[in-house]
Specification:
Distance between the termini: 89 Å
Radius of gyration: 40 Å
Strand order of the largest sheet: 2-1-3-4
Helix content: 55-70%
Largest sheet: 4 strands, antiparallel
Structural class: mainly alpha
Strand content: under 5%
Number of helices: 41
Amino acid sequence: MSQAATLSPELSQSLGLLARACLTAARNWRLYPASHPAVHTSFERLHKTIGESIPSFPFAIGVAPDTLLVNGAAPAASDPAIAELASLLHEHDIIHLTLVTAPPPAALEGLLDLLKRDPEDVRAAGGPAKLWSVSLHKSIAVQQIDYAKLFADREILKPVARRDDLWRAIVHSFDTGSGVLDEAAQERLLEIAGDASEIKELARALTASRVTAGGAPMIMAQAAVVLASFRQILGVVSVLTPDRRQEVLANLAEASSDLDTSVALRMFTAEHDGEDRGVVDGVLGAFDDGSTARLLAAALARERQPSTRLAEVLHTIAPDAARKKRVLGFAHALLKETDFAATPGFGGLWSSVEELMLHYQEEPFVSEDYRASLDQAQPRAETMAERDRPAELPGWLDSVSEDSVRRLSVVLLVDLLKLERDPQAAEGLAGDMAEVAEDLLTAGDFHHAAAIARALAQAAASKIAAQEAGRAALDRLVRSEAAKTLLQLMADLDDAQLLALRDFCAAAGPTCTMFLRAALHDEAYTPTRRRATEIIVGYGEKAMPFLTPLVTDERWFVQRNAIELLGHIGGRDNVRLLQPLLRRGDPRVLRQVIASLLSTDDPGAVRALQTAVRGAGGEYREAILQALVAQHDRRIVPHLTQTLADVDRLGRDHAFALDAVAALGRMGDDRAVPVITSLLGQRRWLAWKKTTDLRRAALASLVRIGTPAASAAIRDASERGDRALRRLVRDAARV
């Protein structure tokens, strides 16, 4: 049996990066205005990712319901980002997306605008391919689902069990009200009609898109489309299999009991004429006691109050008193299994329900004004939705905007954590806060993410019940994929965004070094590395434990970058970490080790350099001296002169003394003159050769320094020195 083709790990990773960048950009494009920083950042990241991750153009991507395909091959491993992007594209009826060439920003903006639109609006406009053809962006090609071809396919296996393109075509037909179904669609509709659960799914699909911009259900529109679908189902059944009409009516009644109670009541109590009246009467007549009880129980649990509309429905379904009592008994048993039955006053309320439902009068239980208000609430809401909006509406909408709701959510979560005294509850709350912060980081909202991180850090540092929970949640946040992604965005952030990101890192604390230190893996001094370094340096010595692994990294440039950062931080721990590298470090890193020690304001740094210079031998000592001199930093002169004064210059340290004197000459600093001059008077019996070599080296360094003080020292040696020294001075002058 052949196995399905899979992409290479490299191409799978590239496809995953592209999917994550596209999803983030699409989400921000939908949630925020174009001027929002998160939109700019995620858009630039998408543009950059396409350029870096696509191996060549054209690049064709096939779209399955739950994955993306390249040349018919799926990713090597499951990736939630790829599955989510596939679902988004499939919802918009896109089955093939081809990047013909590297798309310019305008083409990417057009694609994000397309994905931002409601899928039903896209279908109503002719589909994604038709909309894209108008955009004239030739760098991207879009291929959509061909419904005509699907309708022509007669060999469909298990049509009811699949939510395939034929199912979507039927939903689309009901959504648009076209009512045009070809033979294949009619056959599928017959099979749907034979299963109450499938009718429920169809009703859910039709009502899902009929909501306001804020997510509130549009009851009239939902009731109308469900009734239209019922009418279409009965129409097809009446023509093709008229003997099944009663069976289908029973299934429609069963499905109706599962509808939102407001939709069901609207559908059954509104005024209908002609065919719609016949459909409603037929469905109501098919309700059995169980279906009626479920509808009644759901309505009471939702409204918590009997009403005339509910009584009308019950009276229409069960006009005789005996059946009403049976239905009420079933409904009461259903409600006893819910939390509603445990509320205070349920017994009295149920007595009112029985009285109203059995006698079909509500006046004894509610006032006239309240009853009128209930009856007029829905029409009033529908009328307001159709009229001109009041002047205050923009302010009202702003109060429930994404930013306002997000800000309020963050404030509430922070306050709840401060007030929580139960450790177990605090653990769950802190975990929720970490999840919210991850979403905020993904969206580029660093400001609100910083507020959550600050609250978690305060909890971790406190003595309250949330201490352990805060510490764990904060650790989870800085280890998350959202935090790691920040490093990829850092170079593209503007000043305001970078300031907000620094605020987040400051709030989250030194543990952010765990993801920021990845910037030190770049050999070049990139903008990302520079910005990450600045944030880490701000933590001071608290960041050092997180940098220690990099000091011993097998890559020399990672060591160098970490050591450079440690030099900026300084401190006693810095000396402890760097001193071993003076004895066994990579020569390519040695210069940075010495530079970091020189910049460390600690006496231990001086001692470490002196010990290393004295203890090193051969080529390594020369490498240390060269590294010291290569700094071109006059701060090394005191180190060398002090070391030179302490060593046995005519004994075991003679070779080091010669190297150190030559190094001081190359530095050309007057502070070295006194120590070098003192070497001219050095002599030891039985060590005349070493004495001569040391004096000659000292004279050469003084000549190289060439300052007035150095010249005076040479002149004094020629006048007051012993005969051997005066001869060396004359030789040096001739040279």
